[in-house]
Amino acid sequence: MRRPNFLVIVTDQHRADHLGCYGHPVLRTPHIDALAARGTRFERFHAASPVCMPNRASLLTGRYPSAHGLRVNGAALSVRATTFVEQLRRAGYRTASIGKSHVQPMTDRPAEGGAAAPAVDAWKDDGGDYTQEQPGHYAGLERHPLRTPYYGYDEVDLVTFHGDQAGGHYLQWLRRHLPEADRLRDRSSQLPHGYVCPQAHRTAIPEAFYPTSYIRDRAVDFLRGTRGQEQPFFAFVSFPDPHHPFTPPGRYWGLYDPADFVLRLPYEAHHNPPPPIAWCRERFLDGSRQRQGPHDAFFATEREIREAMALSAGMIAMIDDAVGDIVRALDDSGQREDTVIVFTSDHGDYLGDFNLMLKGALASRGITRVPFIWCDPRQGEPAVSQALASTIDIAPSVLARAAVEAYGGLQGRSLLDCLDGRGRGWDALLIEYQDSRTRQGFQRPACVRSLLTERHRLSVYQGESWGELYDHHQDPGETHNLWEAPGHRDTQSQLMQQLLRKMLAAVDTSPPARYAA
């Protein structure tokens, strides 16, 4: 029996509620919605870690960051790590990664603001090349021959960074086909606009040359090339949008009006905001916000947030159009009825929750809850699943559907029994966060462990006396922190014990003992 193909589509920094099928009142995403209408849409799917690199490594390995080792942005996934893509490749799959990978550093700059590197580390160098996504390889016009297999991918078309500043193979292609590319990418060349939102830039790069279009075209070419082939394929198509900077090109810039968006959870809605939220607000009030880094969560005005929402919506709309073209190419290839399509994101964005933007240590649902759609030709009726599920569940789900043997150390579980909408999933999720530098008012790089149950979120911060506890039945917006509430001490104690058990269950079991002691 022929194994199924897989087309996995990933966006970057895209919260679940910013899709039409997840109930957004303004944003229109007909092509992604069509996948949900034919498959299973998961309502309670969360990142294993709400940060790009750690969660992308969790997707590839089916393991928590504390197990696979890529705990913070700027580290790298060990070349010794087993990925589910490698397992598919060994089973005869053609494997391709098109777009953003980000399991190795995209820069060659030293880490900022972290602890000084020790002279000798706890781990010796394993000899792997961890420079493959760095910009120096892509400075010339001739396509850089990235060494493969790359974490299991035989074919790699790499896009690094975000928005109109994307790099990798895309930048080499852009410079070959658009001689004035560097001038158009320069911020001094941006088109006139009246937006005040930080990192909102009206790019002069034409739509046809924007990274989303490049990834779409490469994916379409790949799918067309599968026509008539018997070899099953796994294609990972990863867009770097709608991650900031906010640079939707051409008609997508003005596609949505900021006036149509609503700030649902202003700062004032939180009755006892945790210290990092208050710290961000203080930086805004004292005028020092601009000294924060470009990827640091910051406090924004209502106007800035509405503008960011509208521009993010434009970027998502462009992705949705690209998804439509990609799925049509799959149809044209004759492979649609043999292909499982998955749509998800690596993490979300505060995008106005309590006037915050971007992402950070606070594990609110805006940054942990992401879309997850499984569209399977073998499926009967479409469904909506309320199962608690995590990024670590993607690897075992794909392997199970492909009838490929799983590997030791997998920490996720297959979601195939949830596709009819009746499976329960996990009783609770563990969400890990670790920072590489000090920010958001913390006295040290933040290290956080969160427990998410059907009803509650509990978050514990290393070295801090405060924490977070929310009752989602009574407070879905997380506006009343019950950490210090006397009437909830028993609940806090029970959840702390449950968190401890989840952390114990996440202790790595690989490699196992090979011999008797």
Explained architecture:
The protein has about 525 residues and is of the alpha/beta class. It has one domain: Alkaline Phosphatase, subunit A (3-Layer(aba) Sandwich), CATH 3.40.720. The protein contains 12 helices and 15 strands. It has helices at about 30-40, 50-60, 65-70, 85-90, 170-175, 180-185, 210-225, 275-285, 300-335, 365-370, 395-400, 490-505, and strands at about 5-10, 40-45, 95-100, 155-160, 165-170, 235-240, 300, 340-345, 355, 370-375, 385-390, 430-435, 445-455, 455-460, 465-470. The strands form 3 sheets. Strands 5-4-3-6-1-8-10-2-11 form a 9-stranded mixed beta sheet, sandwiched between helices. The protein has a 4-stranded antiparallel beta sheet with strand order 12-13-14-15, with helices on one face. It has a two-stranded antiparallel ribbon with strand order 7-9. Helix 4 (about 85-90) runs parallel beside helix 11 and helix 7 (about 210-225) runs parallel beside helix 9. The longest helix is centred in the middle third of the chain and has 32 residues, at about 300-335. The protein is globular.
